Amino acid sequence: MDRRNFLTKGVAATTVFASMSLSSNAAESKKVRIAGVSCSPRKGKTTAMAVKTALDAAQGVNSGIKTEFIDLGGLNVSGYTGDAGPSKDDFDKIVLPKLSEPLPDGLIIGSPVYFRTISALCKAFLERLAVLRKPKLLLADIPVGVLAVGAYRNGGQELAIEQIQSAMLCHEVMIVGGKPGAHQGATLWNAYKDDIEKDEFGMDSAKKLGVRVAEAALRLKQK
Fold first, then answer.
1. What domains, with CATH codes, occur in the chain?
2. Is 131 exposed, middle or buried (CB count within 10 Å of its CB: 0-12, 13-18, 19+)?
3. pLDDT digits (tens, 9 = 90+) for 149-166
4. Which of 62, 51, 3, 76 shows the shortest CA–CA distance to 27?
5. Contact (CB, 8 A) for 64 and 31
6. Are 188 and 50 in contact (CB under 8 A)?
7. Is the Cβ–Cβ distance between 83 and 136 less than 8 Å?
8. For 189-200, how does the pLDDT look when each residue is reduced to its tens digit (9 = 90+)?
9. Alpha carbon 97 to chain centroid distance?
């Protein structure tokens, strides 16, 4: 091989490798990350299962979707302390890194219904998200879907969903509902001693919610 052929082939190979590297980086940047947060003090129970179901449905929409499940059950998450300074608890140590490194492209939040409202743990979680509003709104424009699990079919699930949505609007997120049967969000009924899978209607609403969050996140990522 003469010097000219060697140089020509060397440049061509370098170009190919550079192109492959750029393609790999571009593919990585197109990946969509959807996080799901269960705000029930009962770790791994019905709310956690409902959020996981929504995440599984979201992941099934596209092979480029990656999900992150965060179960607040058993964690110490205190409410917002305002000017008193940040609370150094499990929110800072465990939850915040999973929500901000990197930021999600979509978010699903689930809460049990206690006395027709969200859990105290959910309220604390929503308050502590204030850290993602300064110095700028880090969650702005990401699609957010909400689900709630109640002890009765009409046990306040939609009220709890509205409360979470109202709080998240302070971040200027895009509120996403599900498809027919879950337009406002997913509503689940724990009527079978924690076997939430027996609530076929509720589980279906969770799946539809996950799909809608995934579809919205994909559209926004492609822009």
1. 34-222 (3.40.50.360)
2. middle
3. 999 999 999 999 999 999
4. 62
5. yes
6. yes
7. no
8. 999 999 999 999
9. 14
Q: For residues 179 and 215, is the Cβ–Cβ distance under 8 A?
A: no
Instruction: Catalogue the long-range contacts made by 94-97 (C-beta closer than 8 Å, 24 or more residues apart).
Output: 95/37, 95/70, 95/125, 95/128, 96/128, 96/131
Mean pLDDT for the stretch of residues 30-59: 96
Alpha-carbon dihedral of residues 184, 162, 188, 116, nearest 10 degrees?
A: -150
What residue type is 65 in one-letter code? I
Question: Hey, what are 26's tokens?
Answer: 């571009």
Report the predicted TM-score, pTM, of the whole model to 2 decimal places.
Answer: 0.86
Q: Which residues contact 10 (CB under 8 A, 6 or more apart)?
A: none
- Of the candidates 157, 155, 151, 154, which has an alpha carbon nearest to the alpha carbon of residue 178? 157
Q: How far apart are CA 167 and CA 180, in angstroms?
A: 24
Q: What is the DSSP string of 4-63?
A: HHHHHHHHHHHHHHHHHHHHHHHHHHT-EEEEEEE--SSTTSHHHHHHHHHHHHHHTT-T
Q: Which two tokens stand for residue 208?
A: 């539809």
Relative to beta strand 117-118, strand 174-175 is: unpaired
> The tokens of 127 are what?
């308050």
